[in-house]
Structures are given as C-alpha cells and as structure tokens.
Specification:
The chain is α/β, with parallel strands linked by helices and about 375 residues long. It contains 15 helices and 15 strands. The protein has a nine-stranded mixed sheet, sandwiched between helices. The longest helix has 18 residues. About 40% of the residues are buried. The structure holds iron/sulfur cluster (SF4). The site of iron/sulfur cluster has 11 residues, from loops.
Length: about 375
C-alpha cells in the first residue's frame, strides 16, 4: 500500500496555535501555486509510474478555502499521471465556514470520498480564542452538507480552562453531526506561536490534566462504538483512515506541494517550506526538496517499531522479519523483558497494553539502539 499527500498552504487566517505551513497572506498566489503543483504531480507521477497508490490525502492549510476547481484539477492530474487503485480512499481536509454545497458536489464528482473536518471544539468562545474562523453552528451546517458521507472530525485537548465536560460535549456534537472517525490531538504550544504566551503564563492545563481529558474522552468514545486504533485516532468499525494506517505501517508515500514529506524506496525527503522557493524550483525544473535521508539498518527498524507501537495492531512480527531479515523477539529480547509489564507479546505481534498507549514514549525509546 502507498499513499499520495498533497499540501494546500492557504488559510483564511492564522490560528493561535498553528505552526503548519499555512500562509493566509499569500492566498493571492493560489492560481500560480496550483499550476506548479500540477506540474510536480506530472513529474512525480512519471518517476513513480511503476508503483501503485491506494490513498490520496489533500491537507493543509485549509484546502477548502481555495476554489474547488483547483482541488478537482489536482485530483484529475493525480488520476492521469499516477496508478491509483480503483477504490482509492481520497480524503480532503475542510474547515467549517469555507465550504458550500457546490464545493462538496465538485469534490465528490472527482472521486473525493472522505472528509476530515477541523472542528477542534464545540465552544464558540474557545474557537474565537484560537482564532478559528468557524462557530459550532458552522460545523453542523457543514455536516448537513455531508450527510451520509465518510467524515472525520479533529478535536483539540488542552485548551485554556477546558473541562472534561466540554471535551465530551464536543465529541457529542461531532457524533450527533454524523462523524464516523475522531482524531483527538493534545495541543502543543510551539515556540513562536501566539498560544506559547498562554503556556508561559501558566494558562494551559498541565500534562497530567490533558491526560485526564484524553482518558475521559477515550472511555466516552468507546461507549459510543468508536474504537481507538492509534493513540490519537478513534473510529467506528470499518472507518479507520487507510491513508494514516499506511504511515504507521511504514508504507511508502509521496508528498506533493510546499513542505510535503515523502518516503519512497527507503529515502525520506521534504519539499521547501517557502511558496516562492517551491514555485521557482518547479518553474526552472529544479527539485523543490530541501532535505533527503536514506534510512537503513537499526534506524529503519526503530522507525518501524515506533510507528507500529502507536497502533492497536502493534508490530507485525512476520512483516518485520520480511522487511529486515531479523527475528525481533530475539534481537530485542532485553527490551521485551524490561518492558514486559507494559506490552502484550504473541506469536504474531507485539502491542502496548491499552492503559499505556497514551504514555508509550518510554516504552518505544527502549528499542532505540546507539
Ligand atoms: S486552519 Fe489549520 S493550517 Fe490553517 S491556520 Fe488554522 S491550524 Fe493552521
């Protein structure tokens, strides 16, 4: 399984916690950016003509902020130059307040079959404080446009003064709206973002308080039939994100557009974070890559272990042997003994016990070899 990621680096405004490659002031470059993106899609598609891809993910930024004809054009271009499986999962990230019925219709007409909505919280005062452009009502209007579709919602944990009741009400709102999948991320106050000041002022909850919000949400979602299949991801049966599962299985993916990362043939590489640099590179037939690393040996094994242990499926021992020619239970028997209390080991796989999945870092780091 391999995936395609397409980055749309435009938003209406900048959220207070955002350190993604999104540039609200550069939205005037939309047309020229997409012209370059189409060219990169063609070039990469020709290079990768021997591979087959089964997912496409259009992320951002806010892909739904640009006219839908550009998104439709990107999908058509992907279908023209890449081998896509006939039933490929094609996801677009959308933000409430930036879509209407015509946009959704055009998305669906080119085969987009999964929608990921940035809800974050169901409380308008919190949305305003985060500088999000939507309200809870906008979310419900958006869900109304997406009736019967495969929809996921993002929820943020760790907002200033956020209570468990608010987190659960937000999840309730999402479920009432009809979502089949919820991603719950702990807010990370990155240096340089406005919310970092709130963090320095002690206005954000502590790590333990966020862990309590997470545990409460996990239990609530379980009761509603949403199974946790990765640390931050919960889904009704059959609605797991195939695109993200591919990342966690250390599958290959090609990233297209500004800041997009790729993992192809054992090499990880990333495009420039500057829109102008990206467009210049494409126009002058240069590579937009700014970094490239071949991952091999213990580093590759560690990546596989780290990614797999984030999921409820854990490390597939046969797959590990197939990829690295190594018996994991033998090579890492010291780690397995050291962490026995926290992990389940069977003949087929190794998983982190349910209660420890949220605090998996220590367990995972024990697999790191010097
Ligand atoms: S919508 Fe997303 S990408 Fe855009 S500014 Fe907000 S957090 Fe960043």
């Amino acid at each position: 399984m391999s995936g395609i990621y397409i980055h749309v680096p435009f938003c209406k405004s900048k959220c207070t916690y955002c350190d993604f490659a999104s540039f609200p002031k550069e939205i005037g470059k939309t047309e020229s950016y997409f012209a370059c993106l189409y060219r990169e899609i063609e070039g990469r598609g020709r290079q990768l003509k021997d591979k087959t891809f089964s997912t496409v993910y259009i992320g951002g930024g806010t892909p739904s902020v640009v006219p839908s004809k550009f998104i439709a054009g990107a999908i058509r271009q992907v279908k023209k130059f890449f081998n896509l499986t006939p039933n490929a999962e094609i996801t677009i990230e959308i933000n409430p307040g930036t879509v209407d019925a015509d946009k959704i219709k055009e998305y669906k007409s080119v085969g987009i079959n999964r929608f990921s909505i940035g809800l974050q919280t169901g409380y308008d005062d919190q949305l305003k404080r985060l500088n999000r452009v939507h309200t809870a009502k906008d979310f419900l209007l958006c869900m109304n446009l997406l009736k019967g579709e495969n929809v996921s919602a993002d929820v943020l944990l760790g907002l200033a003064d956020q209570t468990l009741e608010q987190v659960l009400k937000t999840a309730e709102l999402a479920i009432a709206g009809g979502v089949k999948h919820i991603s719950a991320y702990a807010l990370t106050p990155e240096v340089g973002t406005p919310i970092y000041t709130d963090y320095l002022n002690g206005e954000l909850p502590s790590g333990d308080e966020v862990a309590d919000l997470y545990d409460g949400l996990k239990e609530y979602l379980k009761r509603k039939g949403f199974n946790r299949y990765e640390v931050s991801n919960f889904a009704l049966d059959g609605f797991e994100s195939k695109h993200n599962l591919n990342y966690w299985m250390r599958g290959e993916y090609i990233g297209l557009g500004v800041s997009a990362s790729s993992f192809i043939d054992g090499r990880r590489f990333t495009n420039t974070f500057s829109i102008d640099e990206y467009m210049n590179a494409i126009i002058y037939n240069k590579s937009p890559e700014i970094s490239s690393d071949v991952i091999e040996g213990d580093d590759a094994e560690f990546e596989f272990i780290m990614l797999a242990l984030r999921t409820r499926y854990g490390i597939d021992l046969a797959e590990f042997k197939k990829q690295f020619g190594v018996d994991l239970k033998e090579k890492y028997k010291d780690v397995l003994a050291l962490k026995a209390e926290y992990i389940n080991v069977t003949d087929k796989n190794i998983t982190i016990k349910d209660d420890y999945l949220y605090v998996q870092n220590d367990i995972i780091m024990a697999f790191l070899r010097d």
